[in-house]
Amino acid sequence: MYDMKNSAYAQSEKKQMMLRIIDILIVIIAFFFILYVFVMNQDFLLKTIIGSILAIIIIVYGSIMYETKKVLNNITDTDIQKIVLLSEQGKEMKEWSIKGKTSLLIGKSTTELEADIDLSGTEYESLINYEHAVLNCVSGMWYIEDIDSVNGVGIKKSNKRVKNRLKYDNPSRINHGDIIYIANTRILVK
Question: Which parts pass through the membrane (predicted)?
Fold first, then answer.
């Protein structure tokens, strides 16, 4: 089975770690600055001005962090339960439960290879590779990756109008409501 130990997740982890380090450094610097101004210094005007500036900075920084956490919660708040094959008319034809799984191969099954999401018998079967794409769950987030298919993999985000073609070996995050295109076959993420 194709497994994703790719750079998308590693880069995300590195960014989060750097943000944590920056936050810790800001707190340490602010602590010593406040200690100097409010404990060691006796100038009332300086304390008032610096106190006001610090209050404004704390409010702005807090609101930025609140908005960032809100966005991150929306990104990671995916409760993807299943993948649904859609007909040309948009009707649900077949579904696969992905709850509790970590990696799924999308393609066509043969006697030697069993695809987890088997698209044999679909209208565009001839355009689908036996090993076309892979879905991987990393830290509760699902990614799709084209594994060098001939006719490609596309994704249309639920909040966008156009679909984007994935590049080989470049995983893309999927969310509830996105539509995956395996060649011309449409799969809805639910």
Answer: 21-38, 44-64
